[in-house]
Write a structure and sequence with these properties.
heterodimer; A: 658 residues; alpha+beta; Rossmann fold; Immunoglobulin-like; 5 domains; 8-stranded mixed β-sheet; 5-stranded mixed β-sheet; extended; B: 925 residues; alpha/beta; 6-stranded mixed β-sheet
Chain lengths: 658, 925
């Protein structure tokens, strides 16, 4: 036996205190008697003053001391140590990706009687893993249950036989996640868990819908693969759903339904436009083929489109991929104040940004009360920072929020003309999406020290020319030169640069450029479970988020929102309010099917390469043995002491009040 | 959001709470033998002891500060981190492990292109041994996001109660993934990311940029711009090859002196034949630490020759310009102004239009409108060359043509404030009663009067105006008078209204009459506007008269109004205006008269041209003048004065800082003006120089749009391993082209060609991707065909240059990203190894087991319980009042400790403790 926190024995002071109390003279109890004969009984206590007799005769003290000592020992965390044989360490890697919901699980292979309901690949995997625990493992084997989808997570671990119920329960609780399987990550985590253990081994229960090309590094332990499901391919899926506004603002919707099966399939595509049903479309799919549909004549204010494919012959393998949702992007209205615009071009570029309402004023007329989302200052900056995001062009030498230490520009150095305001570095930045700075020249710029809050976007040799950052609580971007001192105006990229700046400041995505030059991530689609990061407009006082289940959350509009209740696929409406006035609405879509990777989930045919992950018996089989065959285990029993103390308390209380 | 709930690890022990009534029942039985308060206090204490004990047994967990830290160290072993820094990072981690607490957990993840588990999560102290680190991951990439996700998977669940932390040791230069985006993943929720920024490898020479125009036209010289970086001043050798078809030639090979830091080398590869060209640059520097980034690649696609329309106001006026363009392999079609197409479709066969000394009246309004749209909507180029018939001298004011130009025809403002005297000389001959106007109801006379009235109304306060009407003889309708307010304007207008048509036409005597009258007037600017519909009946000495007017500082503009004016008379009037340094107008539409008159009144006296010898100055470097040597600029001898518009870029100025060459972006296209003439008197020296032959091809090419296939745009973006192709296909007005069969033929750097399908993914959008096998240029030809007819709808060739892997770029540490990762997760910026185990956190408190605290609390309460029962404390036992206002009267407590001294003063602490000791001593006895 050992004590895990031996310093807790200092609690013996408690027992000592009790003993001390008994060493004190107790206060005499006032007893009224009817006859002096009874004094004899009252004085009996006085006759037992001898310490030894007092201890012998007073069970109460003994009980109290025992209780205190029990508590002391419990706090010291006594633990029994014993050596036990160690068997294998097995990592049961359970595939819980979305494809495991395919209902071609084989009850017979799992030793289950066929039932009337759906039997998914995950059902089969659970059954097989449970059987494996019961039949294949020996006492002393340690088992780690790893849940793997887009991440790998240990959900239970235990040693047989004692830990069997807990392990079985953990396996039974496994649920599929709306995510792809990241096999390299799962192998890395499982390998890490198993490789330092004695006789590490890994057993993968998977439906095989996984890309193994990225598996460049197998774990240095034996791996065996248990395929689940019949491997059927009769699945249809909506592999593309995209809505865009054309040149005249009309909404066009592109849908592709794909048949991954070997038989032709017919069905109906039902659309809901902002929860209103639209005319259904008949779809005929050839084997291993798809049908694209282009749908038009939607209302101009359409915001959410949901498509649902219903196969005529009844449910297919996976229902999850028969539904898709798309949000039709429309940027929220951003109020922009241009203070002291020196040129028409800047004003025109700002007005051309979709969703921007521009107001122009002079520095003398500037009102610090706010009411705008973005403030654009040219050659001037107010004494008090504006109550919103700001874009500063040509920072003033005095009163600037950035430190101006001089100027950059043309110099004649030893008879040679140089220009230290020339662009020397261009860094990847959301401000430069779709902007080509080739040939852009800057004649003169302010020499500005890069603030701590900022990151460089474009820089001359010795100082930044354009930078952006978070001078809390708002965002800011700075152009360290007068736009007229550059040839930016003449560039096609100038309005895009300005639009990018406004969009970045207000937390919108990259500016979509005609022709698709901006190639940023789809800014309204995200994976279920990922947090939704919202940067409210500075005018916003409240942000409301409505989930697909119509649950509504309210947030303070004065700070960034990180919304985490996103496990449900579907549309999440984010509405910003200034007081009770709605000032912005955007719909984000949580989707299992990510653009360009729809096949990764919807094609349920097991990939042949999955079997190659297995190394058991193969030439690459490895069996590292680490450590002795026995190990010391601790079994804490403080709770037993606690229970005894409770019994003691009851006994002492009864004795004291008898 | 609600706070964390409590939880129990062994909730079934809560059943023991059922024994609580038993304690009450036992105590109640003996209640009579105790004082009520003592009994209640003892019962409460006992129930408290029992409650705490049962909650401890049930394993109560409450939100609270973490008792241990689980840290996963994420170590960047990518190539951008120098080897010694990597070793230093490993040592730092080892030191951190040695300083961990007994309950702290630690794991290690190493990463570069992929992340690897170096050590799984376990006891930090057990991990602290000197075990060698395992095989490092492939170093040619940095996937920071992947490493963070892997590290998060190693961490214990939030419910385990440990403070979950990742200590990130990296330079922050990620080449794949998005670390900030990864923070949104659920696995990284409530994980603190602490950051130690590693210094990246910067002591390295590299080709950091290689820029070539993506598309050129045949004959257009290829200018290659190479950005070089060097850690110190040193010598090197730079070679550049151009590869196209079977040609592979060195276009540059030279020893260069590299500056410390960035520098730029511009290589002129000359003109290249039509086709796809790859450029390969290699920088040789002795002893360079990393050769992978000393090479780079770029590409261009040389298309067919450009076509330009050259419109000459005067035949052969711009011959040298045409020859310069033709010499640069630009096809030139030459037309007269009247032949300029007014249909946009016909104009758009040309990439640019050059107008050389074209008078505004030579172009119809619909032609000008077409030119404006050609630039603004068609995205093409417009070049206007000056001369005596252009800009302010050529009636460009307020026309669609002027709208498209980077200048206004108004001369600079410096003469605006000069005093002006204007005399309107109006023909009132009988022919002016003709009603050949648009509506057949208004006579020429009425329009002339209307024009004159409007011209007078245009004048500003302080201007002087006089009206002369003439037939055979002239007379003052209104003497020259100063306009001081609306009353004066009305007075002159009333006088104009009295003019009636009658008689013949004697222009000479009218001009002479006005001249003599104006001589008497004191004004800096004196201007005569002649309006007539006829011609001089008999020869007259106009030239001496006009010379005399010029000597007297007068200028003359002439306005011919349809009717009986023959071509010879028109030529005469034009000559008079030229000699009089004014403007000549002729209109077949008398309705233009008011407009012309007001314009003349507005422009009156302005000097629209400068004739003087000067050398132009270079103000703004522009592609139009690239390679021209300012010191060698030939002299110019004159130009038309114009004013730059806001947003235009003045490239060359005169010695008086007036526009010589100006350019701007207008809508989708570009326009450029040259205010001297093309090759006449003003620019005769230029026309003879080599600079001139170089200037015009460059200037005209600058205005041209990039070669493009209408309606098909292709963007390619790579991450060093794969490249994604996005095709946007659309018709005019932005309508999408859908359901087209789209394919891309990708020519690899080794010459093999792979064909890949590019399926539609959205309205008008088609996407695909391909693997990047090695650095080099990948040429991509995208074709779109109609799936039913097989007809080719559109095609385009573009390229993608993989210069070198992004990992080999020379960049400073991305501190902003790292600081942001720390800030968004509440993590610290660490420097010392022991900071890896700091307990202070901004994270939400997690559920922590509190059974030891509960058990300790129970023990303390139990001692108190015994004390209460044993000592039988009363209220007077406490050395302080138990209730507000209560006076401590008792002199002795239950323990026998005096609360106050006999003199009634309170006892100090020392004395009180002494009294306590005495009491205990007394009791023992």
């Amino acid at each position: 036996m050992t004590l895990l926190t031996p310093w807790a024995l200092a609690w013996v002071a408690g027992a000592a205190a009790i003993l001390g109390l008994y060493l004190l003279k107790p206060r005499s109890r006032r007893v009224e008697v009817s006859s002096t004969w009874l004094w004899q009984g009252a004085l009996r206590e006085e006759s037992a003053r001898s310490l030894i007799q007092w201890l012998k005769r007073h069970l109460l003290l003994i009980l109290q001391l025992v209780i205190a000592l029990l508590a002391m020992f419990a706090l010291a965390r006594p633990a029994l140590t014993r050596e036990q044989p160690v068997g294998r360490t097995l990592v049961l890697a359970m595939d819980v990706s979305a494809a495991m919901l395919a209902n071609d699980g084989d009850p017979a292979a799992a030793g289950r009687a066929p039932g009337p309901g759906r039997f998914t690949r995950l059902d089969e995997a659970r059954a097989r893993a449970t059987d494996f625990l019961r039949q294949e493992l020996r006492p002393g084997d340690r088992v780690i249950v790893l849940r793997m989808a887009d991440r790998a997570e240990v959900v239970a671990q235990g040693t047989l036989p004692g830990g069997l119920p807990q392990l079985q329960a953990a396996i039974e609780r496994l649920q599929a996640l709306p995510a792809e399987l990241d096999m390299p990550q799962a192998l890395e985590v499982a390998g890490g868990l198993a490789r330092t253990a004695r006789l590490g081994q890994m057993v993968i229960f998977t439906g095989g819908v996984v890309d193994t090309q990225n598996v460049t590094h197998q774990p240095p332990v034996n791996v065996s693969v248990v395929p689940v499901g019949r491997g059927e391919a009769n699945n249809q899926a909506i592999t593309a759903l995209a809505a865009r506004r054309n040149g005249i603002g009309e909404v066009e919707v592109f849908v592709r339904v794909h048949n991954f099966g070997d038989q032709p399939v017919a069905g109906t595509l039902r659309l809901q436009v902002d929860r209103q049903p639209a005319e259904p479309q008949t779809v005929s799919l050839p084997p291993q083929g798809s049908q694209p549909l282009l749908l038009t004549e939607f209302p101009l204010n359409t915001s959410v489109i949901e498509a649902r494919f219903e196969p005529a012959g009844g449910p297919d393998l996976l229902a999850l991929d028969n539904v898709a949702t798309e949000a039709v992007g429309l940027p929220p209205l951003r109020k922009v104040l241009l203070v002291g615009g020196r040129t028409d071009q800047l004003e025109r570029a700002l007005r051309a940004v979709p969703g921007v309402e521009l107001t122009k004023t002079d520095p003398q007329q500037y009102d610090a009360k706010g009411g705008y989302d973005v403030y654009v200052f040219e050659g001037w900056y107010p004494r008090v920072p504006p109550p919103g995001h700001w874009l500063l062009i040509d920072p003033p030498t005095q009163g600037s929020p950035v430190s101006v230490t001089g100027t950059l520009g043309r110099r004649t150095d030893s008879g040679r003309e140089t220009n230290d305001a020339q662009i020397a570095r261009v860094l990847p930045s959301p401000l430069l999406q779709g902007v080509d700075l080739t040939g852009v020249g800057v004649q003169e710029a302010k020499r500005v020290r890069l603030p701590d809050w900022a990151e460089e976007v474009v820089a001359a040799r010795e100082a930044p020319l354009i930078f952006m950052g978070y001078p809390r609580p708002y965002r800011a971007a700075v152009f360290a030169f007068d736009l007229r001192a550059s040839n930016l105006f003449g560039r096609v990229g100038f309005p895009i640069l300005i639009a990018n700046a406004v969009n970045w400041l207000t937390g919108e995505g990259a500016t979509p450029v005609a022709g698709g030059a901006a190639f940023g991530p789809a800014d309204t689609r995200f994976t279920p479970g990922d947090a939704l990061a919202i940067q409210p407009l500075p005018r916003a006082t409240r942000v409301q988020i409505e989930t697909p289940s119509k649950k509504r959350y309210q947030f303070d509009g004065n700070q960034p929102v990180r919304f985490v209740d996103t496990t449900l696929p579907g549309p999440y409406s984010v509405i910003q309010y200034a007081g009770n006035l709605e000032i912005g609405r955007r719909v984000y879509v949580a989707s299992v099917l990510q653009p360009g990777r729809e096949d990764a989930v919807a094609n349920l045919t097991p990939r042949e390469t999955v079997a190659s992950l297995a190394t058991v018996g193969g030439p690459q089989a490895q069996a590292p043995v680490v450590g002795p065959g026995r190990e010391t285990v601790f079994a804490e029993w403080w709770r037993l002491l606690g229970v005894l103390a409770l019994v003691g308390l009851l006994a002492e209380w009864w004795w004291a009040h008898r | 959001m609600t706070g964390l709930p409590i939880s129990f690890s062994a909730p079934f022990f809560l059943v023991l709470l059922l024994v609580m009534p038993a304690f009450y029942a036992v105590a109640r039985r003996a209640r009579g033998g105790h004082r009520r308060r003592a009994w209640s206090l003892a019962l409460c204490l006992r129930l408290g002891v029992v409650s705490l004990l049962i909650l401890a047994l049930a394993g109560l967990r409450l939100p609270g500060p973490a008792k241990n830290v689980a840290t996963v160290f994420v170590v960047d072993l990518s190539s951008s981190v120098p080897t010694d820094v990597r070793e230093g990072a490993k040592e730092w981690v080892s030191q951190a492990l040695r300083r961990a607490g007994p309950d702290d957990l630690a794991g290690i993840v190493t990463f570069a292109r992929q992340a690897r588990v170096e050590r799984p999560l376990g006891s930090a102290r057990d991990s602290a041994g000197d075990r060698p680190w395992g095989e490092p991951p492939q170093a040619d990439g940095t996937d920071l996001a992947g490493a963070l996700r892997l590290a998060a998977d190693l961490l214990p669940a939030p419910t385990a109660g440990a403070l979950r932390r990742i200590v990130l040791l990296t330079d922050g230069n990620e080449t794949a993934g998005d670390a900030q985006q990864a923070l949104l993943k659920p696995a990284l929720r409530d994980v603190e990311v602490a950051v130690l920024a590693l210094p990246p490898r910067v002591q390295d020479a590299a080709v950091s940029g290689f820029v070539v125009p993506a598309a050129l036209r045949a004959g257009e010289p290829a200018e290659l711009r190479l950005a070089l970086a060097s850690p110190e001043k040193q010598s090197g050798t730079l070679r550049v090859w151009a590869q196209g078809g079977s040609i592979n030639q060195v276009v540059y090979e030279r020893s260069i002196e590299l500056e410390a830091g960035p520098s730029e080398v511009v290589v002129n590869a000359g003109t290249l034949p039509q086709g796809s060209w790859a450029f390969h640059a290699a920088l040789e520097v002795p002893g360079d630490s990393r050769p992978e980034n000393n090479e780079s690649w770029a590409y261009t696609i040389v298309g067919s020759a450009a076509r330009v329309l050259l419109v000459e106001g005067v035949v052969d006026e711009a011959r040298s310009v045409g020859e310069a363009l033709a010499g640069a392999n630009i096809e030139v079609d030459r037309l007269r102004p009247a032949q300029l197409p007014q249909e946009l479709e016909r104009l758009e066969r040309y990439e640019a239009v050059v107008l050389a000394n074209v008078h505004g009246s030579d172009l119809r309004r619909d032609q000008m409108q077409a030119l404006r749209r050609y630039v603004a909507e068609g995205g093409r180029g417009l070049v206007v060359l000056g001369g005596e018939r252009t800009f302010g001298l050529g009636d460009y004011g307020d026309t669609p043509l002027e709208e498209a130009l980077p200048v206004t025809v108004q001369p600079p403002d410096r003469e605006q404030t000069a005093s002006r005297a204007i005399v309107l000389v109006i023909d009132r001959s009988g022919s002016m009663s003709a009603a050949d106007t648009g509506d057949r109801r208004t006579t020429r006379m009425q329009l002339a009067k209307e024009g004159a009235v409007q011209a007078v109304e245009t004048l500003q306060e302080g201007d002087q105006v006089g009206i002369v009407a003439f037939d055979y003889s002239p007379r003052w309708i209104a003497d020259v008078r100063t306009i001081r307010g609306p009353a004066d304007v009305r007075a002159v207008s009333d006088r104009i209204a009295t003019i009636q048509p009658d008689g013949g036409t004697d222009i000479y005597s009218a001009l002479d009459y006005a001249h003599k009258g104006l001589v008497q007037v004191s004004a800096r600017v004196k201007h005569i506007i002649l309006l007539t519909d006829g011609e001089q009946g008999s020869p007259a000495p106009f030239v001496p008269l006009i010379n005399s007017m010029r000597r007297a500082g007068m200028t003359l503009s002439t306005v011919g109004v349809s009717g009986d004016i023959g071509s010879r008379a028109q030529a005469d009037m034009q000559d008079w205006a030229r000699r009089g340094q004014g403007r000549y107008y002729f209109t077949n539409s008398p309705r233009d008269v008011p407009r012309i008159m007001t314009q003349e009144a507005r422009l009156a006296g302005r000097s629209f041209k400068q004739e003087r010898d000067f050398k132009p100055r270079l103000v703004t470097p522009s592609p139009a003048v690239r390679g021209l040597v300012p010191n060698d600029f030939p002299a110019l001898h004159g130009y038309v004065r114009v004013s730059p518009k806001a947003g235009s870029e003045t490239v060359l100025t005169s010695d008086q800082e007036e526009v010589i060459l100006s350019e701007w972006q207008y809508g989708l296209g570009r326009a450029l003006v040259w205010t001297p003439d093309a090759q006449g008197e003003w620019s005769r020296d230029w026309a003879a120089s080599e600079q001139y032959a170089r200037l015009w091809p460059q200037a005209v090419r600058w205005t041209m749009p990039a070669p493009d296939t209408a309606g098909l745009r292709v963007a390619v973006q790579g991450d060093g391993r794969r490249a994604a192709i996005r095709v946007e296909s659309f018709e005019g007005e932005g309508n999408f082209r859908n359901s087209l069969q789209t394919a891309a033929d990708v020519a690899q750097p080794d010459g093999t060609v792979d064909r890949l399908s590019v399926p539609q993914t959205a309205p008008g959008r088609y996407e695909g991707d391909f693997a990047l096998s090695r650095p080099g240029v990948y040429f991509i030809r995208v074709t779109q065909t109609d799936p039913y007819s097989g007809r080719l709808v559109a095609s385009r060739t573009t390229g993608y240059a993989l210069a070198h892997l992004p990992e080999y770029a020379v960049n400073p540490a991305n501190r902003v990203l790292l600081e942001r990762l720390a800030a968004e997760t509440g993590g610290p910026l660490v420097s010392q190894p022991e900071e890896s185990w700091g307990r202070v956190t901004k994270q939400r408190p997690q559920l922590q087991p509190v059974w030891p605290e509960l058990l300790a609390g129970a023990l303390i309460l139990f001692v108190a319980d015994v004390a209460v029962r044993r000592l039988r404390l009363t209220r007077g036992d406490f050395p302080f009042p138990l209730a507000p206002g209560q006076r401590a009267q008792g002199l002795r407590t239950g323990l026998g400790i005096p609360f106050r001294s006999q003199d009634g003063h309170g006892l100090g602490t020392t004395r009180w403790l002494g009294a306590l000791r005495a009491t205990f001593t007394r009791r023992r006895r």
